[in-house]
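Q: Please design a sequence for this.
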């Protein structure tokens, strides 16, 4: 996978309390699968996917973190140099919603200042057990100035949308030179296609120079 060609790699992180569905959002997006039984994430897990968008290829690298307090300092170490963060809660569990503010604060304190943060209310398939209305989720997202989505990793609802929407936003920002791509900690790296193009361009420039000076 990593030897495949891409224009940019983008570092994402998924955070939130244990059991909200972070690992399954990753599983659904990268492998289109879902695990019914709950397996605690220890420390940090990883998945990546190549995505084509507007004639360019992006390698989305996703760090899936453990929500428990004892892993919090490990998680924070991964905040550095991420370009996008999904803060996830479970729409059937108010405690996970109430803790969102701590995760958003962590993102704001430990991630690069240009980070894009999405609030994600997962398990939208469990409508009968819903404890947090969509309006309440939207209000909280608005209060922090974040984009908001409800997802179901189980039924594959909006999972592609959160990644698609964030990619669209990041590409817009790349195109308007919003990021300093020379700064390694900005969460975006130029890929092997870019380097090849850069070489080709340099060769072309050399030829042009030669032409001009002949
Ligand atoms: P994490 O601790 O945040 O990584 O949560 P997991 O992805 O391990 O999921 C915790 C539990 O919730 C597991 O039993 C999953 O099967 C379940 N789960 C995750 N996403 C969904 C969802 O969208 N809908 C439902 N009904 N269950 C989910
Ligand atoms: Mg997990």
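A: Design:
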């Amino acid at each position: 996978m990593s030897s495949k060609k891409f224009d940019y790699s983008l570092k994402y992180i998924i955070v939130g309390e244990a059991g909200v569905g972070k690992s399954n959002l990753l599983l659904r997006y990268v492998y289109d699968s879902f695990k019914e039984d709950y397996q605690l994430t220890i420390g940090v897990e990883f998945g990546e996917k190549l995505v084509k968008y507007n004639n360019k290829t992006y390698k989305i690298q996703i760090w899936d973190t453990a929500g428990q307090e004892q892993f919090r300092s490990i998680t924070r170490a991964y905040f550095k140099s991420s370009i996008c963060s999904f803060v996830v809660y479970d729409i059937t569990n108010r405690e996970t919603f109430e803790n969102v503010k701590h995760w958003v604060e962590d993102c704001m304190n430990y991630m690069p200042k240009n980070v894009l943060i999405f609030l994600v209310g997962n398990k939208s398939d469990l409508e009968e057990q819903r404890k947090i209305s969509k309006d309440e989720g939207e209000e909280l997202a608005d209060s922090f100035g974040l984009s908001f989505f409800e997802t179901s990793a189980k039924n594959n609802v909006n999972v592609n949308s959160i990644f698609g929407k964030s990619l669209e936003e990041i590409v817009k920002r790349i195109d308007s030179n919003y990021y300093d791509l020379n700064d390694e900690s900005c969460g975006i790296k130029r890929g092997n296609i870019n380097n090849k193009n850069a070489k080709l361009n340099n060769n072309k420039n050399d030829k042009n120079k030669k032409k001009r000076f002949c």
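Q: Thanks. Anything notable?
A: The radius of gyration is 19 Å. The domain at 8-213 is CATH 3.40.50.300 (Rossmann fold).
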